[in-house]
Write a structure and sequence with these properties.
By secondary structure, the chain is of the alpha/beta class. Helices cover 48% and strands 21% of the residues. The protein has 20 helices and 20 strands. The protein has a six-stranded mixed sheet, with helices on both faces. Strands 12-13-18-15-17-16 form a six-stranded mixed beta barrel. The relative contact order is 0.12.
C-alpha cells in the first residue's frame, strides 16, 4: 500500500467574492522511499499541494490517506502529532529562529516530542556534524551563509526522524554550488530510506528526482518516472515512547520559560517597558500590605500606651458639659466600689492640677496628676527607675512622687533624681520613681504623679475626683462592663451625673481609619496592576503578530495547540514574575527609606505580603496572557508561515 494516497483532492479559496480553485480533483499516489519532484509555474497549485501533503493545510474536498489513515478526520493536535513524528520540512527561506543557535534551532521539533535536553543536544550535534556544521553549532542564523542555514533546516527536518521530507524550493535562495550541495544531501537521505518530496519551478532541479509530477492550474498534467526507484531500506516508524503528561507538562513549562527568557533578553527595552506597569503594581501591593501591617502595629502600640480596654469616667453628661466643673459627683469610694467588680483588673482615681516645680535654682511648670497606686498598671506603662508610691502614702496623703523623664532632664540634667526633694507648688515632695513620658504629651508636657489624696488635700482643696480610669480584664466585654459600671454608679449616686468614655471607641476609630486608608491604597494598587496587565496583553498581542512565522514554524514541526498556548502564557507569566521581583525590591527600598517605624507610614514586610504580591503578578500574567496565547494557538499553520 502507498504511503501517501490522495484522491480527487480539491482546495478552494474565497478571494474578492470569487471562488478560486487552487487544486482541482488531484489524484496522486506516493510510495515510501520515493524521491518525487512536483514542478509547475507560480500559481499552478504546487505549493498548495505540498502544504496539504505536509498536513499544514486542509483540503476542501477529496480524500487524503497517509499510512492507511484518513487525515481529513483528524483534529489539530493529531495532525500536529503526525507532522512531529513523520514529517520534516525544508523551507526556501529556511525559517530559522534568529534568537536561537544552530543547535537550538535543530532541537525545536524534539522539544515538542518530549525528548530530554541532553538527548536533544546530543542528536542535534550529531546531525549538524554529519552535515558539515560541527564548527557552527553555536552560531546564530545571521552568522551563517545561505547554504549553511539550509543545512541547519535539513538537520531540523531530520531531528525526529523525518520519514517524509518536504522541500519547498530548497535551492531557490542559494547559489549554484550551495544548491548542488543541498541536492546531494537530499539524494543521500533518499538512499537511506527517506521519502523526499521536492516542490520547485526549476526543471533542472526536478529532473534530479526519480519521478516528476507536473501541475498546472490546479491539475496534474504529467506524471513521469525518470528512473526506477532504487531499492532502499524502509525507515523504522515503530511506536515512540512518550513521557507521562506530568513529565511532558513540566518539560513544556521549562522549555517555554527558557524561550521566554531568551526572547526577553533579545529585546531588553521592550521587556522593561512591558514590565514597568507590573513593577509599579507589585510594589504598590507589597507596600500597601506592609503599610497596613505597620499601621496595625502602630495602632496596637498606641492603644497599649493609652491603656488597653480602659473606661474613663467623668462628671457631667458628656464632653463640653459646662456644669461638669461644678458637679461634685465622683469620690474615692466610687473607685473602691468599682475595684470590687470581677471584670475590673485595676482602677485609679484621677485629680488634675498644675503648679511650678523647683529644685535648687531651676524651676518648671508641671502638670500634677493625683493618681492611685495602680495608675501605671491601668495604662500599661512601666517606670524607668525607682518605684511607685505605696498605699500607705495614699492613705495618709503622703508626699512621695513619681516624675517623668522630661522633668528629670529639666531639673536634674539627666542625673539621678531618686531621693531628691522637689518643691511642687508649696508642697515639698520626695522623688521615688521616674516614668517614661506620657504618649499624649507629644514629648513636651512635664508631669509629676502624686497620691490623689495628697493633691486633693494639699493643693486643690477639694475631695472630688476629676475622673476615674478603669482597666478591664483582658477578655472582658467592654460594652457589658460599661453598662455594669453605669448601673453601679447610677445606683450609688441616685442619678446619672457622669458619663463613660470607652477606649474601644478610639480603637475602632483608629482601626476603621487604618482600614479605609489600606482599602484606598489597595484600590490604587489593583488599578496599577490592571493597567500593567493590559500593557502586558498589548505587548503580547504585538509579539504574536511579530512572531507569526515563528508560530507557524513551531506548528509545522509538531507543536500542539496547547504547546503554543503554554509558550505565550509562560512568557506573559515570566514577564510578570520578573516584574514582581523588581517590584518587591522597589517596595523594600521604599520601606528602608521612608517606611521606618517612626515615619508617617511605617511599613512591616512579611513573607505573606511578598508572596501575595508575587501571586498577584502571576495571576495577572495568566489572565492577561490568555487572550494573546489563544490567538497564537488558533492560527492556521499555512497562513502563519505565509505572513509577511
Amino acid at each position: 500500500m502507498a504511503l501517501i494516497e490522495i484522491t480527487d483532492l480539491q482546495r478552494q479559496f474565497e478571494m474578492g467574492g470569487e471562488t478560486v480553485k487552487a487544486l482541482d480533483r488531484v489524484t496522486l499516489s506516493i510510495e515510501a522511499g520515493e524521491m518525487l519532484a512536483i514542478v509547475g509555474a507560480s500559481g499552478s497549485g504546487k505549493s498548495t499541494l505540498m502544504n496539504i501533503l505536509g498536513l499544514l493545510d486542509r483540503p476542501t474536498g477529496g480524500s487524503y490517506v497517509f499510512a492507511g489513515e484518513e487525515v481529513s478526520r483528524l483534529g489539530r493536535d493529531d495532525l500536529a502529532r503526525l507532522r512531529r513524528e513523520r514529517f520534516g520540512f525544508i523551507f526556501q527561506r529556511y525559517h530559522l529562529m534568529s534568537n536561537l543557535t544552530a543547535a537550538a534551532n535543530v532541537e525545536v521539533p524534539a522539544v515538542y516530542e518530549g525528548v530530554g535536553s541532553a538527548d536533544r543536544a546530543r542528536r542535534s550535534h550529531e546531525l549538524l556534524t554529519r552535515l558539515g556544521l560541527a564548527e557552527r553549532i553555536g552560531y546564530r542564523p545571521n552568522k551563517l551563509s545561505g547554504g549553511q542555514q539550509q543545512r541547519v533546516s535539513i538537520a531540523r527536518a531530520l531531528m525526529n526522524g523525518g520519514e517524509v521530507i518536504l522541500a519547498d524550493e530548497p535551492t531557490g535562495a542559494l547559489d549554484t554550488r550551495s544548491g548542488e550541495a543541498v541536492m546531494e544531501i537530499l539524494k543521500e537521505l533518499n538512499a537511506l530510506g527517506h521519502t523526499i518530496i521536492i516542490v520547485t519551478h526549476d526543471m533542472a532541479v526536478a529532473e534530479q528526482a526519480d519521478r516528476v509530477v507536473e501541475i498546472r492550474a490546479g491539475r496534474i498534467i504529467a506524471d513521469r518516472r525518470l528512473r526506477e526507484k532504487p531499492a532502499v531500506p524502509l525507515l523504522e516508524t515503530g511506536a515512540r515512547k512518550r513521557p507521562s503528561w506530568i513529565t511532558g507538562f513540566a518539560q513544556g513549562v521549562g522549555n517555554a520559560a527558557r524561550m521566554a527568557v531568551t526572547s526577553m533578553i533579545a529585546q531588553p527595552l521592550r521587556t522593561f517597558l512591558t514590565m514597568l506597569g507590573i513593577i509599579i503594581g507589585v510594589a504598590a501591593v507589597a507596600a500597601v500590605v506592609a503599610v497596613g501591617q505597620g499601621s496595625k502595629e502602630r495602632v496596637a502600640t498606641q492603644l497599649a500606651d493609652l491603656g488597653a480596654s480602659t473606661l474613663e469616667i467623668y462628671p457631667g453628661t458628656g464632653w463640653g458639659d459646662e456644669r461638669a466643673g461644678t458637679i461634685r459627683t465622683l469620690v474615692a469610694s466610687d473607685s473602691a466600689a468599682i475595684a470590687t467588680m470581677s471584670y475590673v483588673r485595676a482602677v485609679t482615681p484621677n485629680v488634675m492640677t498644675s503648679a511650678k516645680a523647683r529644685y535648687a535654682a531651676k524651676s518648671v511648670n508641671v502638670s500634677i496628676r493625683g493618681v492611685g497606686t495602680d495608675y501605671f498598671e491601668v495604662y500599661g506603662r512601666k517606670l524607668v527607675a525607682g518605684r511607685m508610691f505605696g498605699t500607705d502614702q495614699v492613705d495618709r496623703a503622703g508626699t512621695e512622687a513619681v516624675i517623668d523623664l522630661n522633668m528629670a532632664r529639666r531639673l536634674f540634667g539627666g542625673g539621678d533624681a531618686l531621693g531628691k526633694i522637689v518643691m511642687v507648688g508649696r508642697v515639698p515632695v520626695v522623688v521615688v520613681g521616674v516614668a517614661a513620658n506620657p504618649p499624649s504629651g507629644g514629648g513636651s508636657e512635664i508631669v509629676v504623679y502624686m497620691p490623689y489624696t495628697s493633691v486633693a488635700a494639699r493643693m486643690s482643696g477639694s475631695q472630688r475626683l476629676d475622673g476615674i480610669t478603669v482597666r478591664l480584664q483582658d477578655r472582658a466585654n467592654s460594652a457589658a462592663a460599661e453598662a455594669g459600671l453605669t448601673k453601679l454608679l447610677s445606683y450609688r449616686h441616685g442619678t446619672r451625673d457622669f458619663f463613660v468614655f470607652n477606649s474601644d471607641q478610639i480603637r475602632k476609630t483608629m482601626e476603621r481609619t487604618s482600614q479605609t486608608v489600606s482599602q484606598l491604597i489597595t484600590a490604587v494598587a489593583i488599578i496599577a496592576l490592571t493597567v500593567g496587565g493590559i500593557g502586558v496583553m498589548n505587548i503580547m498581542l504585538v509579539s504574536v503578530t511579530e512572531r507569526t512565522k515563528e508560530i507557524g514554524l513551531r506548528m509545522a514541526v509538531g507543536a500542539r495547540t496547547s504547546d503554543i498556548m503554554l509558550q505565550f502564557l509562560v512568557e506573559a507569566t515570566v514577564i510578570c514574575s520578573a516584574g514582581a521581583v523588581f517590584g518587591v525590591g522597589l517596595a523594600l527600598v521604599a520601606g528602608a527609606t521612608i517606611g521606618g517605624a517612626d515615619g508617617d507610614f511605617p511599613m512591616i514586610f512579611s513573607v505573606q505580603s511578598i508572596a501575595m504580591a508575587c501571586a498577584a503578578a502571576t495571576v495577572v500574567g495568566l489572565v492577561f496572557g490568555f487572550f494573546p496565547a489563544r490567538n497564537a494557538a488558533l492560527l492556521d499553520p499555512v497562513d502563519a508561515l505565509s505572513r509577511d
